[in-house]
Amino acid sequence: MSAEPMPSDAVTDQPDASGAGGGSAASAAPAAGRRSADDGAKSAGRGQSGVLNVFSHAFLIAWVVMAAGPLVWVALTAFRPTADFLNDPMGLPTSIHWQNFANAWTEAKIGRYAFNSLIILAGSLTGTMLLGSMAAYVIARFTFPGNRLIFLLFAGGMMFPVILALIPLFTIMDNMSLLDTRPGLIIAYIAYSLPFTTFFLTSFFRTLPSGVQEAAMIDGASHTRTFFQVMLPMAKPGLVSIGIFNFLGQWNQYLLPLLLNNEDENNYVLPQGLAALTVSQGYAGDWGALFAGLTIAMLPVLVVYAVFQRQVQAGLTAGALK
Amino acid sequence: MKTETRPATGGQTSGKQPPGRTRTSSGLAFALAVVLPPRFTPERVRTDRRYRTLDKYRFIVGFLALPLLFYTVFVISPFLQAIYYSFTDWAGGTTANFVGGDNYVKMWNDEKFWDSLESSLLLLVVVPLITLTLGIFFAYMITAGGRHRRGRAVSGVAGSSLYKIVYFFPQVLSIALIAVVWQQVYSSRSGLLNGLLGSVGLESLEQRWLGGDYKLALFSTMAVIAWSFVGFYVVLFSAAMGAIPKDIYEAALLDGAGRVATFFRVTLPLIWDTVRTGWIYMGIQALDAFAVVLIMVPPHALKVTPVYLYERFREGQFGYATAIGVVLLVLSMIFTLIVMRIGRRDQIEY
Predict the structure, then answer these.
(1) Residue A13 predicted with pLDDT over 70
(2) What values do phi and psi take at B173, rounded to 5?
(3) Does residue B299 sit at the A interface (CB-CB below 8 Å)?
(4) Using the beta-carbon criterion (under 8 Å), do A57 and B77 form an inter-chain contact?
(5) What pLDDT shows up at residue A22?
(6) Considering only CB atoms, which chain B residues are within 8 Å of A154?
(7) How many helices (H) and strands (E) does chain A have?
(8) Chain A interface, mutation test: which of B71, B94, B241, B313, most A Cβ atoms within 10 Å?
(9) How many domains does chain B have?
(10) Does A5 lie in the same domain as A56?
(11) Which of residues 11-40 of A touch B (CB under 8 A)?
């Protein structure tokens, strides 16, 4: 943006005129005869870009339908009685049928699964952010032997497929009596979120000015106090991005609970519960409850996302851009 | 040794107290300071350089201890153990006999493993191509497909952020939820897809998308993975395209380049690093494809290697399952190296 030069005539007219090929230099000339020719070139250019504009909107809208279509269909079908749906899967709801939601919440236990997910997330997200920022701060702002090694250790952990570690992890958890327990699952979420969280926050803490940290130390604040009261507030934008990233990642986690939390169906987290729905509601023939369950699981995340979309997009793509 | 001599010389230069006394009393206070919280540490000790070093290391150790403990016990050590166990006949118990390369030989002769690997490799090659092409296409439409405005060489379409919001929807949802939604979409009896085909008079195209033909199930799986990631890449690539300075586009336009030429000669080379990173990331995601296949596809129709691994684990063949995991690790490393190599270009700075 800043690179854009002053809006002299020559510059402003170029894009339009170039559609008709050449003639752009003419626009700077005040000659009346040339003026009309230039107008012609302009409208031709505009017409062509208009066609392209319609063309690109058509493609873009086609993908809107593709991306949102299945989700909208699920949400609409959730309001239809199962019998209606089986007769005509494409139909629209004729009346608002709330029974499916009641069935999903109680019989299909979506409420219970959502509650489990919330409890796990409360522990794991707090732990991840706290431990991740502590480790990142020390790695980024202090020089000590082994600093580089520890950083590489964390960074390297991002590249391994989690599924390879799962089998030994299963027995480690079993030996520590953490298998099929909430603390066990919380610890696993934290441990597997740490590599990226630490990696991301380390580069973030490095960008913060060092003067503030020194000033706090000179004023007599301890290292711990400097971290919590001075550096953490300054790192807020980075913490928000990585916090959203971890929130979604942990809320949506399926692989870890599938292995470490598979004993009692009552302890399932939401993604496990949804996967189990297809089996249980399928046998019961209660498709309405299945669709309602999916809608209940889907809507809060989409609403939160729509509100914080800028931060979410920044948070989730931050990983790939680094 | 060093720390012994330093305070002694410090005491001599200050010259106010006999050096011997300083050493003993500060030594005692110093020992206390290690265990006491800073606020109970005497001022005299706190200004000591040794104390400052001690305080720093105490802080470093205190802050790193728990994260490192969690990380090494629950992440690093399982990875290392997995590699070791792949050479054993471990079945989950306390005994694991070293059997050399037996698991790998077994894998070599295991036809079902090769079948699963074929599906996984097809996913690895095809899915990134589809997803990245669509992602780049839509991102370019969003950043450069707009009506020309005065003073702009390229302009975004109206409502670009709205498009990005909707495109990104699948990315914020759990992969388990996506798998269940698409299972319903593909359902042969009451699915959205067959319903749509039926309603426009294309009953002949209605299929058993997941439960029948292997190729069709594989294709349907690819479509779901691509569907869930396209929005991510649209956001990623349109951010990268937005970072390209406008005057480069203006220069291209002055030279008479159309939109297509501008894309291939200017845009694509300038975002190439992001494309390559995205390609690697997408490939590794496609090679995994665990949850989608496990939840959505009936086991008889299609199996990918991670699902095959999971089944061996559930059967108690822990040693064999970890060996399959090691092969997956090696595959993803080879893939990363290949993409880095064929995708290497001169870095363009702007």
Answers:
(1) no
(2) -95, 155
(3) no
(4) no
(5) 37
(6) 71
(7) 16, 0
(8) B71
(9) 2
(10) yes
(11) 11-16, 18-19, 21, 24
